[in-house]
Task: structure prediction
Amino acid sequence: MIKRLIVVLMVLGITGCDGGPSNKIVWEKDGAEMVWIPELFIPTKFKKERVYDRIGNPITKSVKVSEPVKIDAFYMDCTEVTVGQFKKFLRATAHRYNTGYWEQVYRYSPTDEHPMIYVSWHDAISYCNWAGKRLPTEVEWDRAARGGLVDKEYPWGDDLRMSRDYANYDGTGNKDKWDDQTAPVGRFAPNGYGLYDIIGNVWEWCADSYDDDQDNRVLRGGSWDNLSFGLRITDRSFHLPNDADNYFGFRCVAELSEF
Result:
């Protein structure tokens, strides 16, 4: 199976020098650059607990705190879907986007190079279906956002002072051009996998429901409207799938099986 996939990738011209998948490709349908996120296996985690046997002697017991997790490799858009890409989707389909949003879109994302905002979860799903991609699961989003780092608070590490180099967020004291709106995509430093604006700029829709709440969908990553304490990788939000606002956006992923 793996050999067959590599042959397909070679035919498509998206393999690296070592015969494996290329680190970066361009998705033909929407022109998005995508980067390769390698697979990850997270083993079962245990913690030590001090307990007592039946006659009161202290003993140490290993307690399972998480099940093993395997995240298959995938490609992810380098940037959030832009206004220009979303317009291309609308021109190519009969998708019924709420035209009443456009005035506010242009207020906070004024050019085709800015991230598309005022998109509902359903809008994002329709775009992904047209492009032949999908929304990331929350686990995939978290994996990609870390950029290969382990147990760090932010995609760049633990030093919050570096946030201005990586993210568009509120509270920079007008020290950048975009204190009150989104920034054009790709204007800040990428994380270790080459993903831009994975934190800040716009909250990004994920495919999942929010925990056991089947009504709401997950958003991750914070936005231009968040202060710096909202830039942690683990921060989460949720909204109804029909909701849209000036800080909601998305990016897509694709699996090897989709080639």
Remarks:
- The first helix runs from residue 2 to 12.
